[in-house]
Amino acid sequence: MIELTGVSKTYDGQKQAVTNLSLTIPSGKIFGFLGPNGAGKSTTIKMMTGILPLDEGQITMNGFDITTDALEAKRSFGYVSDSPDQFLRLKGVEYLNFIGDLYDVDTKTRKERIEHFTKEFGIFEVLNDTIQSYSHGMRQKIIVTGVLLHDPDVWILDEPLTGLDPKSAFTLKEMMKEHAEKGKTVFFSTHVLEVVEQLCDEVAIISNGEILFNGDMKEMKKQFKEDQTLEHIFLELTNHE
């Protein structure tokens, strides 16, 4: 479970990026986080993961405070950022072993998971190549594999399907469903509204740093018109901001 309570963030003491944001993302759910560019999605996610400090409020991961219990909180989640251009000079296998060392994944489990997930994503054969030689999609796959390697309870995925080929995107979506079915948590941001309609149990829409809607898809349909698509609802909400 992820809980955000009264979270705010200001840049340079002037630009209010997120204002008094509160969300509860329950276990056993796939939770979609939507908003136009500059809405506050990435800022919120960076606060959730401890990359940015909070100005106000509290964020907990499975009961651990991201500020005061940072190490335990960070052990409970895996994070895929919106840019996979990381550790470019490492070989793919070196990066995955680095992640395995960070999270104390034993040698046998590590080897099995690396082989399984990289074969699922079609990158097993390039593990001895440097990440800088990978395409954008391949870099995305190696970062996602790193998240799956230590089997965290909470997945935080920022635009995880960007750059993935259709087969790999399908594979990841199935993994997200399986993770939630195990009673664990998937939180992901996306611009692809169709994916939200396919996958999400619950959704929040953010604009100008504030939550405009938070609930399940049925509640959203009730609040608006039953025959409206998520695209129409999203545009109706954000265009009035």
Automatic annotation (TrEMBL):
SMART domains (UniProt xref): AAA (SM00382)
Domain of life (superkingdom): Bacteria
Keywords carried by this UniProt record: ATP-binding, Nucleotide-binding, Transport
GO molecular function: ATP binding; ATP hydrolysis activity
Pfam families: ABC_tran (PF00005)
Name of the molecule in the record: ABC transporter
Residues covered by the ABC transporter domain: 2-233
